[in-house]
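Show me any protein, fold above all:
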Amino acid sequence: MKNKNNKRTLKAAETKRRIYEAAQQLALASGIENVSVNSIVKAAGVSKGSFYVHFESKDALTADLVNDYTMSADLTYRSFLESLPAHESVFDILMMLAGEISDFIETKIRLENMRVLYKAHLTKTIDTTSAMSYNRELYKLFTEVLERGVRQGELREDLPVDTLAKHLIMAIRGITFEWCIRHPEYHLKEQVEDHFKILLYGLKK
């Protein structure tokens, strides 16, 4: 009896994985908003009923994708920071981090999915808490770099670093929104880097 239960559990986990990975691949190719449950189950090779056993709705699956991409992004940014030489100035680190974030958004998440994410933020149809939370790793990364800048005498000390971190991320989010509505004539990484140069000039000690 125990073996049968284990087999069922493993089969269920495998089915869920196939559904999730099919949705992920289709979302990257076409944008999650252009992907239907029918296309997901067809790509996964499972029944539509199996989809609803594992996911309440397509929005629930999309929320899982948002959560996983948020964690993946933050791990990528952490690894990127840790790979930089210790002698780099805080200003250069912040510029490079902004560029890395721009690259991840443009190549890993992609335009159509960012448009869906912004729409979800506004309509609340999908749970995007993981991407918006001030407790996410991204805010900690910026705060750590800014604290280092203050300690090294590179940055002014009269502004709280957690507030500065929020403003820098807000800037990236706003520029990404502009990219979403002005593509293709608007280059995301170029605009982020130009804007950061202006912001960081005001933070110099």
In short: Residues 26 and 180 are 20 Å apart (CA to CA).
